Amino acid sequence: MLEPFTEEQLKSELANFYCSESYYKANIFSNIVITEGVRYFCDICSCYWLLDEAIIYALRELGKKYSFLIVEFKVTNKRGTTYIEVKEDSNTELLFRRRTKDLLHKIPIGEYKFYLIDNVMLLPSEY
After folding, report:
1. CB contact at 8 A, 44 and 37
2. Which CATH architecture has domain 7-13+27-126?
3. How far is Cα 66 from Cα 89, in angstroms, rounded to an integer?
4. Is the predicted pLDDT of residue 3 greater than 60, yes or no?
5. Do 35 and 61 touch, CB atoms closer than 8 A?
6. 57 near 102, Cβ under 8 Å?
7. Tell me, what's the pLDDT at 9?
């Protein structure tokens, strides 16, 4: 895929990931692993730091209270302003919301959803 790419193009690429066979350690500080699809997203968008932000919060603040969480990255403008949102389910209140601003990443404007289930972060298509 050539850069810059759109939300539609990225989501089309991510839809090709399902039934992940490999897991990768998210970072050296946690026992969270990520699937092939999440790794692709972070590689292509240069945004492992964003994933770390969500994971650090999930581990520190939520602990073992939740076995299923929805993590969303919402990029709102070309400067890269991004919201990290964590909730228990689609129809529940936010457990966490953090705004990052003007950081370097290549995520197209849009909304991207991930699941964090029993220490595995995956794309909805990989569920």
Report:
1. no
2. Roll (3.10)
3. 11
4. no
5. no
6. no
7. 95
110: burial class by Cβ within 10 Å (0-12, 13-18, 19+)? middle
Task: Say what percent of the chain tops pLDDT 90.
Answer: 51
Read off the pTM.
0.90
Which single residue is written with the structure tokens 């603040």? 61
The closest alpha carbon to 97, from 111, 76, 82, belongs to: 82
**pLDDT digits 0-9 by tens, 44-85:** 999 998 898 888 877 776 766 788 899 999 999 888 889 999
Query: Residue 68 in contact with residue 88, Cβ under 8 Å?
Result: yes
